[in-house]
Design brief:
- The protein is an alpha/beta fold.
- The chain folds into five domains: 72 residues; 197 residues, Rossmann fold (3-Layer(aba) Sandwich); 188 residues, Rossmann fold; 56 residues, no CATH class; 94 residues, 2-Layer Sandwich (Alpha-Beta Plaits), CATH 3.30.70.
- It is built from 23 helices and 25 strands.
- A seven-stranded parallel β-sheet has the order 6-7-5-8-9-4-10, with helices on both faces.
- Bound molecules: adenosine-5'-diphosphate and zinc ion (2 copies).
- The site of one zinc ion has 8 residues, from loops.
């Protein structure tokens, strides 16, 4: 039973309809779907601990005894003066919430005082919402550009349930469009809204912009929340005390009444897909929820998924474009460094070659220039498949995880080998276990090594590293990004996580250390992902008046994922990528479902997959129409994860309904043998194929 503290049902009708759709479409048990849609504290019958009220206090930090000084200090900020004097009259310390309410001023006035060192924020008790600790910077009001105005007008005029794809290049001001739409929906119509972002911790700037405009109306749902905090936020949303939910994937289930808009920012991001049952895609759920609630749904991206692009092309979604950067800003110039010619020079030693592979001469020169001018740089090291592995140079043996068929990654401090699937750790050694040679050496490079190398090449640079190791703390991402924003960092080095949403006008150089890393992964979206990543990271450069330069290092400069990123040509990329999705057909040409069979014993797993394959063959022969095609069964690209062998088969069809019925029949009638802990998982519209 679901225990809800008051008489209202836990689910609103639109959410119930969404859950019913999910259960049907993803062929997932209704119980699992309901659990995914409720906060953990409601899924169990236990009540969370009672809410603790957090109070942010504003404390004056500087006395202003002389009136003249006071006049001068506040000459151009009468609101700050009013706030200062209010707090002063209350003994120099007051609750931010109360002070803002008393003066009916914007929270920006508070941040203004803090920024000028006149006051500081303090916390009175332990806050349950850690986001309240972060001070939202003041909103910078902009007048929308003509393109932004058109997009806003179209969204405001949109039909209930309509879906719009907002294709706006990086820096075109998509956030302002969302904000203006929300102003209309929340402030004018008194309705509510949901904003989905790929990952809160990676996009603090975007979240801050919403908080700066809508203040206490916003509930930020992020993974750092405890069950109790999540529950509080959930209640506040359900009661309409907060009218905007901002969060990752699961925020699509925010229990808001009278929903008027759902924004899915960076709609192409893979993190919108849930990796466990129900394996839903938050973008698809958002569309269904908007339809059920009569809300408008906006999908925004500089590099839309091919699926959404196709839906816009066929008129299923309305296409809105922001084709230029705001304020006449130009897209950065992109240069390519061909690593084949750059590192092959005969006079180079192996070590020099490795260094050059990290930092080619043009990239090093550009970094040095930025340093001398006091400008900032971002360096992307795409770790996927690039993480440093250990290989014997005598017999080519590679240190691999015995439980998962992938190579182990060398970590330092303390030195150890780590499996990135199951987290298994092993001591690092110098001796090859296969041939006994003392020649184990590291291949590929990790962020730590690149950081070390950078600090040797650029001894005066202040370098910050952002990867899974430096961001384990709750607010570590935000701390690093705040330092970049304050100009305390010259070079920000990081993995994919630095490619998203950052907006730093003083960043004038972006370097991509190795563009090719993801291109050859055994996944039909490998090129699309690479193009998206390169475009996104390139979009971090030149957001200010100083312009920007992007340097991409690659061994495949002619690949369309690289070429089209260089020319900022999304449409050109799609034109080259789409034909490769037609024969053999892949989305958006067809719909896919991936069925994975796993077990602890290899022979039993294989037999299991093969018998399922036979079941489908027979079932498909029965339909006669060839509307569903099967590929496989075959071993998964990663054959073993966490001691389980994995096989899979793919179903493709142009008819989603037929696929649903077939999958349901299989999952409800095919017997899973009881030996060997065999399991079958069904993944509709799979996003990760490894
Ligand atoms: P996108 O998400 O499309 O990459 P952002 O929404 O981050 O772009 O906007 C980029 C920058 O442009 C931000 O600093 C934003 O404050 C600014 N901006 C947005 N709209 C305008 C406008 N109409 N005039 C001036 N600046 C704007
Ligand atoms: Zn060896
Ligand atoms: Zn492993």
């Amino acid at each position: 039973m679901i225990d809800v503290p008051d008489a209202e049902p836990a689910f609103r009708p639109d959410l119930l309809a969404v859950c019913r759709w999910m259960s049907e479409y993803y062929v997932a048990p209704p119980g699992l779907v309901l659990r995914a849609a409720l906060p953990a504290a409601l899924g169990t019958s236990k009540r969370p601990e009672p809410p603790v009220k957090a109070r942010r206090m504003l404390a004056l930090a500087r006395d202003l005894p002389s009136l003249i000084e006071r006049e001068k200090t506040f000459a151009r900020s009468p609101q700050q003066r009013a706030l200062y004097e209010l707090v002063e009259s209350l003994g120099g310390r007051a609750s931010v919430e109360q002070a803002v309410a008393t003066l009916a001023c914007s929270p920006a006035v508070v941040s203004g005082l803090v920024k000028r060192g006149l006051a500081r924020l303090e916390l009175e008790t332990v806050a349950r919402d850690p986001f309240s600790l972060r001070d939202a910077p003041p909103a910078q009001p902009h007048d929308p550009s003509a393109a932004q105005r058109d997009a806003i007008a179209a969204l405001i005029a949109a039909r209930a349930g309509e879906v719009a794809l907002l294709h706006g290049i990086t820096g075109s001001g998509k956030t302002l469009v969302y904000i203006e739409l929300l102003k209309h929906v929340v402030q004018l119509q008194r309705r509510t809204a949901i904003v989905l972002v790929p990952e809160i911790a990676l996009t603090p700037q975007a979240v801050d912009r919403f908080r700066a405009v809508f203040g206490q109306q916003v509930a930020v749902l992020h993974s750092g929340l405890s069950d109790g905090e999540r529950y509080d936020a959930w209640l506040a949303l359900r009661r309409g005390e907060r009218r905007i939910a901002v969060g990752a994937r699961s925020a699509v289930f925010a229990p808001l009444p009278d929903l008027g808009a759902i924004v899915v920012d960076e709609e192409h991001e893979a993190s919108y897909k849930q990796g466990e049952s129900p394996r839903y895609h938050a973008r698809e759920v958002a569309i269904v929820r908007a339809r059920e609630a009569g809300a408008v749904c906006v999908l925004g991206s500089a590099t839309p998924s091919l699926e959404s692009w196709e839906n816009a092309r066929t008129g299923k979604y309305r296409l809105l474009s922001l084709p230029a950067r705001v304020g006449g800003g130009a897209l950065p110039l992109v240069e390519v460094v061909d690593l084949r010619t750059n590192t092959r020079a005969a006079h180079l030693t192996a070590a020099e070659r490795q260094v050059r592979g990290v930092l080619s001469e043009p990239l090093e020169r550009a970094l040095v220039e930025r340093l001398s001018r006091g400008e900032q740089s971002i360096l992307l090291l795409n770790r996927r498949g690039y993480a440093s592995f250990v290989q014997c140079s005598a017999c080519e043996w590679v240190a691999a995880c015995p439980d998962c068929s992938i190579s182990l990654t060398l970590h330092r401090a303390p030195e150890r080998l780590v499996c990135h699937y199951c987290r298994r750790q092993e001591p690092a050694t110098d001796t090859c276990p296969q041939c006994g040679a003392l020649t184990l050496r590291q291949r590929g490079l990790g962020t730590q090594q690149v950081e070390k190398l950078l600090s040797e090449q650029l001894p005066t640079a202040r370098i910050a590293r952002m990867d899974v190791d430096t961001t384990s703390g709750k607010w570590a991402h935000a701390d690093i990004l705040d330092r970049v924003g304050r100009g305390e960092v010259d070079v920000l080095l990081g993995t994919q996580m630095i490619a998203k949403g950052l907006d730093f006008p003083n960043v004038t150089l972006v370097g991509v250390i190795d563009a090719d890393v993801g291109i050859n992964l055994p996944d039909f979206r490998a090129s699309e992902r690479t193009f998206q990543l390169l475009s996104q990271v390139a979009g971090r450069a030149g957001r200010g008046p100083k312009g920007g330069l992007v340097i991409i290092q690659t061994r495949v400069p002619t690949h369309h994922a690289v070429r089209c990123a260089v020319t900022h040509d999304y449409v050109g990329f799609v034109a080259e990528e789409l034909p490769g999705r037609i024969d053999p057909p892949y989305p958006p040409t067809v719909r896919l479902a991936n069925i994975v069979f796993s077990g602890v014993e290899e022979p039993e797993t294989v037999a299991f997959a093969l018998s399922a394959g036979a079941w489908f063959e027979e079932a498909l022969a029965g339909t006669g129409q060839g509307t569903v095609r099967m590929i496989g069964p075959a071993p998964c690209p990663v054959e073993r994860i966490k001691q389980r062998w994995r096989w899979h088969l793919l179903l493709r069809s142009t008819r989603p309904g037929t696929l649903t019925r077939l999958a349901r029949r299989f999952l409800t009638t095919f017997d899973v043998p009881s030996r060997g802990d065999l399991r079958v998982t069904f993944d509709r519209d799979p996003v990760v194929m490894l």
